[in-house]
Amino acid sequence: MKIINEKGKLFGIINIIDLIVILAIVLLVGGGVKRAKTNKPEIITETKKALIEFEISDIRTPSVEALEVGDMLYTSDKGEEFGKVVHKKIEPSKELVETRDGKLVFAEVPEKYDVTLMIEVQAKDTPDSVVVVGEQVRIGQQFKFKNKKIVIDGIVLRVDFE
Question: Does the N-terminal or the C-terminal CB of the chain have fewer CB atoms within 10 Å?
Fold first, then answer.
């Protein structure tokens, strides 16, 4: 008995091209099953207290006054409770300007301020990221917040777990 007969069948049973297609399908399905079993994400349900430092740049006096220590901040798009302001630092806003003799210096901008807020949140510490109210929080990321007086953008400067 020949391995491939005159009709091109392997051992007289199956065509060689059909066999290659079936083997490819079996390998793809097997690889998909293996990947699905090994790449299950770790589900973390417990939260920890964290402090997130945000910088809000170039805002006016009414906006500074609308952000108070003790205020609860909410996500702007979903309206979910994000966290509570526990510390507020105000500095005059500065910008780079050219002097008359051609030097570049930082000068204060009248009636503009940079505010640094420390917000206490409940966060999930996953292996990949820090998650607060279903959103990943990373340094350099911009967030839009609101309280009952203001909607404002802030940039994440630091995330610390207690």
Answer: N
